[in-house]
Amino acid sequence: MSMYPQVLFQNRKPDRIATIDEYRRSGGYEALTRALTKSNPVEICKVVEDAGLRGRGGAGFPSAKKWQSVPPDGAFPRYIAANADEMEPGTFKDRMLIHADPHTIIEGMALAAYVISASKAFIFIRPSYDSSAAILEREIGIARQSGFLGENILGSGFSFDITVHRSGGRYICGEGTALLNALMGKRPNPTKPPPYPTIKGLWERPTVVNNIETFACVPHIVRNGAEWFRGLARSKTGTGTKLYCVSGKVKNPGCFELPMGTPLNEIIEAHAGGMLPGSEFKTCLPGGASTLYLTKEHYGVEMDFEPLSACGNRLGTAAIIVFDGNTCLLAATLNLMRFFARESCGWCTPCREGLPYLRDLLWRIENGEGREEYIPAIRKMCRHMWNSFCALAPGAASPVESLLTHFEDEVMEHIRKRKCPFKK
Amino acid sequence: MLPQELRDTLAERIACAEASREQAVEVMLEVQRHYGYMTDEAMVEAAELLDMTTLELEGLATFYDHIYREPVGKHVIHVCDSLICWMEGHESVIEHISSRLNVEMGGTTGDGLFTLLPVCCIGYCDRAPAMTIDGKVYGRLTPEKIDRILGRLKENSEHSETE
Question: Which of B18, B64, B124 minimises the CB distance to A92?
Fold first, then answer.
């Protein structure tokens, strides 16, 4: 058990999912009840704004600001889209959250819907989380029977319901605008705003897309107040708690709810059990596959949006992937490029053509066919990725660029020795 | 042809949607469960139900990892080949399954029981290396564990054939 307050994981159990009764005993659905009977949407949005809640899916956009961008005279019906696609390598917090306390997600979605006057929501979920999708469907049914979803909720006149939407499985669907296309049964290419989804989203209607962890924070903020939420964080700029995933060369990989801004070294050593015996921290990707390699120099960085951005990195999904001295980072980056090249939707040329180009050059270097002139070519192609349509390709370039920044010697060793120095 | 009962269930589901094609993927997943994979006939039937052209539906069918447009075995094995599973030895998992079942990545066993496919990070990084078979997740794979899982599936299918 963590020594820090557990909020999203307060009802987490080792062997089963929290029931609605357990959720209610811990204060669940009090926020929605109070909001619908004693409060108005503007007040609820204000609390979330004062709490400083930022999106937990990767981009970190202020949630209240997103909700406020729904035009007051915007068309109806309005929609909520909850992102539980979670295909960023290293990330499994959404699954943990669904399997811990699903009603905190449902209540958070209902509160967000109340703020923007949405009547319908979709939870978009990937095929390998089929058991999570079944849990959500069951618990949504229970919430409906208990009067927290459906027509005229708690006699307030507010009606709202949630549908679980199963995806066919593709990384790009996690991108906000691609997700909306996927939901509508269109080819899931991203679209370039404006118009933003909050103005024209699903079927041209105002739509708020948030990660499910973001929604899960909302009931707790509404119930306990903005000050309380801000006070949960350890970093000056942070607010609330964060679900950190740790994987790779650590003793106890897992998902831990800790104050936003908990130092990286503490997460790895105190919560993930430290490095595996005989291995030493070399580097990590701090927020999933689309972030940059973080070196020992920043080992004590506070895991929050601002401190990571101050050292040129990103919090991303806060999925920490840990590498030790025996792992070839070139081969690791090659694996990532295979992933991104395969998952590119193919819509725009820089991404469709550039990622396989990067993958092939890395493959040649890893397999002893590298040349020194590949390095400037890789750097140049990484810069071209910024000309692509959405954030997939620039995200994909992040580990490659940081490989060259921090581990150029390792890459050069491959080229000089005409083989991978890690292979015996 | 799809059984009338399934057609009715799907039609009802489509009628409840905001727009019919919203259900495209879920309808394909259901139709695929019936046929085993999206046959040309299945594509035509699903497209009719969804009020889409087969060409429009094809654009979706070929986009997604879990919609199969070619025949697959009774059990589809998706082995995660993303970063964390790679670090934990997914290559040896694939080699082991390949040699055990005598099947190449992307192929189907001669008895039509298993198809072996790669899949992008399935979010079981705390239990790497991992795979899914028919949607069920298996983590912390070892050669022994893989043998047990495959053995059980083989045994079950032998039973169902004799019944």
Answer: B124
Q: Which stretch of DSSP H or E encloses residue A292?
A: none
Which residue does chain B place closest to A164, by CA atoms?
Answer: B26
Quick check: B81 and A335 CB within 8 A?
Answer: yes
Residue B75 sits at the chain A interface (C-beta within 8 Å): no
Residue A277 lies in domain: 241-324
**Segment 133-192 of chain A within 8 Å of chain B by CB:** 165-171, 182-188
- Domain total for chain A? 3
Domain end residue (candidates: A230, A257, A274): A230
Sheet holding A319-324, edge to edge: A254-259, A241-248, A319-324, A281-285, A294-295
As given in the structure block, the two tokens for residue A48 are 């979330």
Residue B32 contacts residue B2 (beta carbons within 8 Å):
no
ipTM of the shown complex = 0.95
pTM of the model: 0.96
Residue reference for tokens 């295979």: A338
Instruction: Tell which of A230, A249, A274 closes a domain.
Output: A230
For A230-282, the pLDDT digits (tens) are 999 999 999 999 999 999 999 999 999 999 999 999 999 999 999 999 999 99
Contact A374, A325 (CB under 8 A): no
